[in-house]
Amino acid sequence: MPDLTTLTPDSTLGDLPSHACQVKPESVSLLISKAFEQQPELPGVIIVGDEEGMVGMISRQKFLEQMSQPFGIDLFLKRPIRHLLEFLQVQPTLMAHDCPIRDAAQVALNRSMESYYEPIVVAAPDRTLRLLDLHTLLLAQSQILMLVNRSVQNQRLEVQKYLTSLRQEQAKVKEYNSLLETKQAEIQERNQALEAQKLALIQKTAEVSQLNQKFIQIGQLLSLESKKAFEAVSAGVDAISANTDKVVRVGNALDAEITTVQAASRSIEKVSRQIQYLAVQAAVVANKAGSQFTGFSLITAEIGKLVNQTVEAGNQVNQFTSRFRSEIQDLMESSQDGTCIARSLMEKIALAQAALNQLEDLVQEEERISSVPNQLPTPDPQDILEMIDQVQAHQTFSAAL
């Protein structure tokens, strides 16, 4: 039995085992009978002429049938094989070696009943001719069909596997679709919430824009009023500084006058003491002279009283000048403190003026941005808080002034 395990669905006649048994037309039939006896697997012989090529083909079955007929051996066994060939008149089936086995089997099975079991002549590329037994062809066809069936079965299993996988994927797709619908519903809700937030944000932006306009107006008014207040405060500080300088000058002049008064008081005191001394001397002289200078004693007594009054008045003047000088000293110190406070106030006014200038620049920038149509940006809440803090600081500073 031939080995057909290496065949594939695309195998051809050239892949099958065949027989190369060719004889001349003049060969005696007895030799062919011996060849059949010696080679039981030989399906037939090919009769080939010298010039015309293949003359015909006689199969084992046809040869044995004719030899088993009455007078068959006597008529054909010792005669040339061409006589038997002419008698049978069988047309051989010729096929190329590259003919697919499935096509060759189809052709062989579609032959007439007389040629149904006849072997097939296979033409090789080198023009050699070989005989292929129909049984071998049918076995090969059966092997190929088995391979095809196995392949179909495998494919069916694969298809079944794919169908199972497809059902699983369809179930997953269905689940994913359900999840997708849920996600789409969530996204739609989020979009609606975002749309509501967007509308609220637009409303808030409009409110912020209105607040920004109000802030610009307040800033402008605050800038104008603060400038007026700073100018008035600056003028007041200048007046305070000028008055303080005037007070210092007057205090210095009064101190000089008090020094002069004290010097005069000391001179009066000195003169009074001298007068008192002279009065005492005059009293002594009058006492020595007796009654002639009685009236002079009265005069000296009055002079003594006047001197005492002058001394008491000088003491009072000295006490007054001392108190007045102390008060002038306190006034000058207070004036100097006022000068320091005025200078510190001027420095604070300068700092406040710088902050006010920054606020004015910011307000002008806001006015410039607001004047551009459709380009008003949303103010930064942090900037608004900083500007409000500056406004409150200016208001606090103005209230302190």
Can you walk through the features of this model?
- The protein has 401 residues and is mainly alpha-helical.
- It folds into 2 domains: 120 residues, CBS-domain (Roll), CATH 3.10.580; 203 residues, Orthogonal Bundle (Helix Hairpins), CATH 1.10.287.950.
- The protein contains 8 helices and 6 strands.
- A 3-stranded mixed β-sheet has the order 1-2-3. It has a 3-stranded mixed β-sheet with strand order 4-5-6.
- Helix 7 runs antiparallel to helix 8.
- The longest helix has 156 residues.
- The chain starts with 21 loop residues before the first strand and ends with a helix.
- The model has no long low-confidence stretch (mean pLDDT 81).
Largest sheet strand order: 1-2-3
Whole-number mean pLDDT: 81
**Major sheet summary line:** 3 strands, mixed
How much of the sequence is in beta strands? 5-15%
> What would you call the shape?
rod-shaped
Task: Give the helix level as a range of percent.
Answer: over 70%
CATH top level of the largest domain? Mainly Alpha
Are there runs of 5+ residues with pLDDT below 50, and where?
A: none
Tell me the Rg in angstroms.
75 Å
The CATH superfamily label of the largest domain reads Methyl-accepting chemotaxis protein
Alpha carbon gap, first and last residue:
129 Å
One letter per element, helices H and strands E, the order comes to EHEEHHHEHEEHHH
- What's the CATH topology name of the largest domain? Helix Hairpins
Q: If helices are DSSP runs of H or I spanning 4 or more residues, what is the number of helices?
A: 8
What count of structural domains? Answer: 2
SS-based class = mainly alpha
Count the E strands.
6
What is the level-2 CATH architecture name of the largest domain? Orthogonal Bundle
